[in-house]
Amino acid sequence: MIFNSTKLITHTHLFNSTDMSVHHDSSREPETCRACTPHKGPARTIWKSREIALMMISAMMLAMGLILEFVLLMHQPALFLFLITSTLMGYKIVKEGIERLFKGYISIDLLVTIAAIGAFLIGHGEEGAAVLFLFYLAEFLEDFATERAKESIRLLMELALEVATVKRDGSRIIVLVEKVNVGDVIIVKPGEKIPLDGVVLKGSSTVNQAPITGESVPVFKTVGDEVYAGTLNNEGFLEVKVTKRSSETMLAKIVKLVAEAQVRKSRTEKFIDRFSRYYTPAVILMAILTAIIPTLWLGLPSSTWLYRALVLLVVSCPCALAISTPVAMVSGITSAARKGVLVKGGAYVEEVGKIRAFAFDKTGTLTKGELEVVRVIPFKSTPKKLLTVAASLESLSEHPIARAIEKYALEKGIKPQPVEDFRAIPGKGVRGNINGKMYYVGGIRLFKELGASGLDELDPFEDEGYTIVLVGDDENVLGALELMDKVRKDAFTVIKWLKEHGIKTIMVTGDNRYIANTIAKRLGIDEFYAELLPHEKVSIIEKLVKAYGHVAMVGDGVNDAPALARASVGIAMGVMGSDVALETADIALMEDDLSKIPYLIKLSRKTLEIVKENVVASILIKGVIAVLAFLGMATLWIAVAIGDMGLSLAVILNALRIPRLKLK
Q1: Is residue 106 packed enough to be buried (19+ CB in 10 Å), middle (13-18) or exposed (0-12)?
Q2: Which residues are annotated as catalytic?
């Protein structure tokens, strides 16, 4: 019962075309293409069916043997049926055990083989056959159960279409996605999945991106917007220019990262692996001593103590303990992937639950990197007039500040007025004539050069950390607009949640200290470090690691790469389409959604809780049955059915609860 977390099921063929006007590009296909040949899935199903048939035959043989042995007292025919059962069920087990022994590895298969042979030698053929049958059944059920833990990655693989409808030479042809080139134009009809990453050239539609990003609401896409392979086009007709080959799409990267994450072990997994390496030989030695010492030193019946040694050998097999952690980690990783969160290994699932301090970049993480007007301050005017003048002049500018002011004015129901003699003053602001009067909008430098009065009114606002835009005429400053980087709505709830759960919050930013102070106060962040260069952020993270032990860094995955790498866990957010972020971070949030952070922490803690439950149950139950075995109160049946098969299935089923848990 060796758990293998790297098995992947080849995804099924999803394409079914009913459009007779579309031509199939057969000239471009290899002799045997993915779209036309059977997959491993059906073959595996047939193989499983044969296994089930084999187990059913063996079960009938075993049942008939038990009737002959204990009801009809026909010992020889019963022994013959037990031997047939053992041969059918034990062939693979014995083979695996011997092969691994020659490789220097004492496996569970070898221990079961020894126990079964020993049972036959001391006249307990029924138990030897039962041990092999139950163990074979356990392996079969475990294989089924552990594959359930990887269902998410199979679902991700099934999102990938195998063919695409491509516009070539004035016609539409169906081409294998591997044969579609960057720059080709593909057609996506309503209700179809998008086969490759690209940019919309024509049409508009809402696209369900939930399989990739975890977003619950479809996203509107129009000309110029990016779309991703595996997402669903809802109602519109789209023409998409391909930007990435099938092996380079965001979906392909996600599948690859999740698959790699499943084999990256946590500290707990590594410890249990090392423990099992020494534990198994120790169990064999203990079983040998149990069989020999009472017989040679105390003169007790050899058959009795040999039987107890065999029971001890079976019940002490570390199978349940060995799979208790990896199956939970895989379940947690794949559960997170379905929510649009890529965790690159069990080590990070484990680490997130231990984090005592979260460091956040500001721009693009806590804020959107977009300016917004937060206050209108009139000096010698009304707020409405001030905003009207500012919006009218800025409506003719392309500066980000201008866009923010114009947007704010429209939200307040103020429409721009006609402007004459408009001129941009580089680095200072803009000017223009409104209703026969010249007005100016810009920074302090512009109005100082104009010699305008009223600048002393700004003194109370200068150190608040806002971007200040002044509005005035040739003589006076009429008022000011305060702008700041737009804070993400979910930043407030996330910071509050972290603080309520005893986790320190820190902001590290390259922005000036006034702005950093303002943002930190608004969000209730515990401390902040401002005006930092990338290497200085690394120094701050190192300082935090020394102070708190376990520190997470949240950033955009590009300019924060050094700090992300230095933290205990680096979390990059909004990495859809960003190769750098996917490579740099330990955990990647596919969308700009800070609310995934509490989810991650809760998922980690719940996963670790289930791991502890599994480990404790494995040790406790096996320990109890081992004591009973030594006292002669446990049989081989109990050892396999409860101490091995039953316990292994219990820890797997416990781990499979993770995706269905409501994390509170």
Answers
A1: middle
A2: 361
